Each structure stands twice: as C-alpha cells, then as structure tokens.
Sequence to fold (214 residues):
Amino acid sequence: MPRIVLLGPPGSGKGTQATAIARALGIPHLSTGDMLRAAAKAGTPLGLEADRYMRAGELVPDRVVLGLLADELHRPGGGNGFLLDGFPRTVPQAEALGRLVRIDRVLSFELPEERLVDRLTGRRSCPVCGSVYNLTTQPPKDPARCDRDGTPLVQRADDRPEAVRTRLAVYDAQTRPLLEYYRARGLLTPVDVQGSVDEVGARIANALRDVPRG
Ligand code: AP5
Fold:
C-alpha cells in the first residue's frame, strides 16, 4: 500500500484533501495535529504539554510527536500504507521517519502566503462532527452553526492572528528545508493548491496516478 506524506504550510488545505486521498487509496489518514488536539482534549499529560506549544503556534517537541506517531505507523489493519498529514515538520523528524519506514511520495502543497492567512483566519469547525468550513471560501449556511448537526462552530486557538504569524514563520524556518530534503531524494511532487477544493483534488489525483498501489 502507498506511503504518502502531505507537506505544506498551515492553511494550505492538507486536512481538507486528506480524507478523499486516503479513501481513494484505501490507506489511513494520520494527522499529527488531530492526534495532538485529541490528546489535549482528553487532558493526558502529553496532551497538556503539547497544548501549550500549539496555542502559541510553536512546534511540539520532536520526542512527543514521534512517541505518538510510532505506535500508529505500526498499527495493524492499514496494510502498512498511510497518508501522513503534518508530519514530518523538521529534518530530525524526517530522518526518524526514514529509519522507521519507506516513503513513496511527498506532495508539496504550494499557495501564496496572503491566501494562507485568509484561509486560516476564516476557518471554523464543528467540535462535534469535525466538519471544517471557511467563512469566505466554504461558508456554512448559517455562519455560526454546523450545516450537518447545527452545533455552534468554533475557531481553533491557533488560528488567531498572532499565532498564525508565528506558525507561518515556524514553517519557513523549520519545515521549508524539508522541500529540499525530499527533492534531493527524488520523492517530491509539487502541487498548485490554488482554486476550488475539487480542482485541487483533481490535480492531486493526477500527481498520484503512478504511485505504487500494491
Ligand atoms: P496541524 O493541525 O497539522 O496544522 P497545520 O499544518 O498548521 O495545518 P492546518 O490544519 O492549519 O491547515 P491545513 O493545511 O490542514 O488546511 P485546511 O484543510 O484545514 O498542526 C497544528 C499544530 O500542532 C502545529 O502548529 C504544532 O504545534 C502541532 N504539530 C502538528 N504536527 C506536528 C509535528 N509533526 N511536529 C511538531 N508539532 C506538530 O484548510 C484551511 C482552511 O482553508 C479551511 O477553512 C478550509 O475550509 C479552507 N480551504 C481548504 N482548501 C480550500 C480551497 N481549495 N479553496 C478555498 N478554501 C479552502
């Protein structure tokens, strides 16, 4: 089964596209951001430690994220294929991942910074079903409630403007070097993620048409 990494700045649409890609390829979607938010919500010691970094827009220490992910990568049932969303984010994380498993393809989501800020500050999500909206680009029928279940929508703590600025700076300093890391290994495929969700989905499907499926 394919082993794919989604690499892209905050707000570039990784989460939005990940569900459809994972379903199409029959592989689990592993989002370290979702795992960390679940641990924070559950109030575990690891989650509470992670929450402080996440709220500020900083990266959670490598040892915490690696501890969470190592179990998931070896969980039975996915035929050992996976779609990683939000991991790796640093060169040490990429090196650790490379020691654990082989990677088939890294999709790099490309979007100008001003569009990232709009997508992040306008994002709202449903705390019950997890549906994600954008007040400008993917608005719910009622701006305050989820279309599916009517629950009041919430804004992620790290989508406040100060945290967004920090996240974009952290991406440039710590995650952008991974583009060269994976390009040098012949694994990087850039994808233009401007345009509608469906248009981007079609470009991704095209970029993955030759990925090994077996
Ligand atoms: P994480 O949850 O991974 O956040 P992120 O990478 O910052 O990415 P986002 O979830 O903000 O954006 P996205 O690219 O998924 O975009 P989305 O699809 O939602 O990480 C959060 C934090 O956890 C980190 O800051 C860090 O603290 C910690 N963390 C996680 N992994 C870590 C790691 N490996 N190491 C250390 N720390 C880690 O879309 C955004 C918006 O745009 C939505 O409103 C959506 O509706 C809209 N949208 C999407 N596509 C389109 C489109 N085509 N057109 C118009 N609007 C669109």
Observations:
- Residues 8, 10-16, 32-33, 36, 53-54, 57-60, 65, 86-87, 89, 93, 119, 122-123, 132-134, 137-138, 158, 167, 196-197, 200 surround BIS(adenosine)-5'-pentaphosphate (CB under 6 Å).
